């Protein structure tokens, strides 16, 4: 008999359709939960799906389904058969959680709406995944993952793509995967920490904002300008080497200077204008690309690593499993159903094994057995509703040794949901997001004025400790003894060198859960690589699917960090379930790269199962046809002829609606266009005609005409204008936060609403540097006199001291 897994006493019913819900329940199954997928007689839509269309040529279920449905059971329920619905209700009476989305005949039933399920089964946690949330002015509006990217501001938010072309969305339907990871964390939070049935309402629009934009509203309101308003191609970025594509990134002046030396041109360094990286790189782009083209990917990466320049081979469905780091760490495994290649778990535990995937179920494979089980008189009693009090993580103390975006985005959720999160910095090595503001260093307290730091660290406490000193390390050890959880995202050598590896931390606090978030893992040939978001995107395939097909791919420059954060939170929640059950802590190794490999899984699966290499296709996609960005009339807020709308037609019915909204022009009446295959074959023609129609209309006119009719459409928003969206206002997604230095600005909350919690999240400002030194350090026995001595010795402090 295999050892128990943390979630193996939980029963989850999957009533979702599509990637988001399936990935959510896959993560729960990996933690050991029993997952029953409820399907109509025609089966889950993913059974017939493949991005390349190859599943239609086989008698088997689609390979992506076989990946996402590993270890699950299949129950067929015909919504027109009363006995089937009765069996479903008996299953729900025994379950702990339901994951729900629209899209199937089952969830279209009024009696199976989320609120109805909650009313009938008040013990259940019901997690609803919808485009805009269950309530509000947009709750019933048509949307796709593509149009949600546009509404979120994520298509243009970080300046992705060339200014002389249409902006480009992040490929691979990344928003669906990211929403699934968020839904898994929200479900576990409610089931494991809430103790009662409730409705968990997740908005995919809000998850897109969290994953594809960078606290843009807060930046605009605090700094009076957008974080980034123009598109550009980062240089070197993705480049062609002699044997493949490689990516190099220069995010700092030092990295640019090192690149100049690496390619043999130290004279390019301009010490008088050290921050003009983009301008200088563009000036010498031809020479830089020539240097790269004469070398192999490995040679370029080896040289860049020696100079500590962020770098990676650019992965795709064909080469990802063969990249040295992934191969050595065993990041890919064989699918137990059909033997194709798929990612392993996105995190690893030291104290217990996660559930190993079992074959995906055949349609209705478990219907008969479940029917017998649910009718047996000795089945375990119905779940009873408990009483929820307080926030889910109240009473938990978290030591937050994170910086930049990935780690803080994980601990931000914990802090917002009640944990006491202590963010550790030092006066000589602060969290570098404090520097992302464009505030002159001559300003008083300039390091307190970063909107990015403010957005990522609300509700946290802040202490400064110089852990390069013996006193600082001793204080850190004393602090560890008081904490339930430690989260860190340094490169592996940092904590190892000061004696704070997991075994050392465990000796201080035996039941601690230590979440380590290295870029590429704690071992392997790439473990010491610098791991900025874009490097993770390059090395995982996320970059490969983003960009226009006639150009090199472009880095999303966004999702790599927050995706790592939400996966680390999922790993932490599984570890908490293990500790709740056994009293034992564990090391959670949640590398950024393996989180990214999981959400880019479809590329490797398609290539391994069907031999088809998925490629970027601009703003087209594998589901909707037509799908694209179309330029509208008018100028944007910067006076540029650069206004766009996103349109995506996913069904034949939507095509009919679009055709009528256009006035049924002759070109659109071709019978071949009534099918998705026909529209995809004529995509160029449709783009031309639809582009002409849009070009003479404003974006507001286009949206009003098409959306009111039921066509998925969106304006391509600048992200700092998110507060103008009535749906976000209705859901109170933004909260006003008063800061002692910055004043008041709106900050994002969380993309989920818990029915047992207040409608508005309580948001306290991010801590000033060392703001809580006295409170936290006196709590571990430091006296007032010792505090003064520590400050004079520069072990702690309230001001930067380089």
What is the CATH architecture term of the domain at 11-214 and 371-378? Answer: 3-Layer(aba) Sandwich
Q: What is the top-level CATH class of the domain at 11-214 and 371-378? A: Alpha Beta
Secondary structure: number of strands = 24
CATH superfamily caption of the domain at 11-214 and 371-378: Crotonobetainyl-coa:carnitine coa-transferase, domain 1
The proportion of residues forming helix, as a percent range, comes to 25-40%
- Indicate the CATH topology of the domain at 11-214 and 371-378: Rossmann fold
Write out the strand line-up for the largest beta sheet, numbering strands in chain order. Answer: 3-2-1-4-5-6-24
Q: Number of DSSP helices?
A: 30
Dominant shape: globular
Percentage beta strand? 5-15%
* Weakly predicted, low-confidence segments: 378-383
Please state the structural category.
alpha/beta
On the 0-100 scale, what is the average pLDDT?
95
Major sheet description: 7 strands, mixed
What Rg, in angstroms, do the CA atoms define?
Answer: 26 Å
**Termini gap:** 57 Å
